[in-house]
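#struct-pred

JT: dropping the chains for the assembly here, can someone run the whole complex?
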Amino acid sequence: MAELAWQYDYFDLVGVGGRIVRRPLVPLSIGRVERGERSEFTLGLIDSGAEYTLADWTLADELGLDPTAEVEDDVVRIAVGGRAHDVHLAQVELSLYAAPAIGGDPRSESWLADVGFIRDWPAAEFKVLLGHRGFFDQWQVHFAARELSFTVASYPEA
Amino acid sequence: MEAGFADELAKYAGRWVALDYGRRRVVADADSKIALLAQLDADDIRGAVILEVPSPDAPSLVGLG
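RK: done, full complex below.
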């Protein structure tokens, strides 16, 4: 993976009572290497407290991927948003984008990751949760909340 | 991201939007993801980030994974 450092602004949404909910969301897509297919651009939440990288089952459906049909159906039980879920892990290609714009050709980096897919995804604004396995083991992240930005960078070459 | 953009996005609460992420603006919206993707395809719009805008009444999630 080429050395890089991409800075993002926090993504603000209006929450309960009109207060701003500030989230570290990054643009990404999920792909199936063996079929050369990739999802639409979606948003992923960088969650330093999450062990796994998780995604909405509907993204798997859109790619024609059945996480239960993996050669080794790897299932872990994880509480997400206060509810326990059976999470089915599947290896997919994640692609991170610098700042996609309409009509542009955004810079991107891709890697293979075991992603856990869950039904009844609890969040609207993001469909992927980026945790330690599958994201933080690929990228260094520096949060600068006071400056309303964060940076995703590659690890130094060994 | 500018607070003004959050206010703009809030107008689309409960809807699916196509976002020009780099320029921070909404380029299309629909009441379902399927309808939005069909609209983008018809208008030949490529490179949009697809986003479901939450209701302002939706609780902020913590402890996700």
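JT: nice. Residues 12 and 53 of chain B are 6 Å apart (CA to CA). Chain B is about 30% helix and 25% strand.
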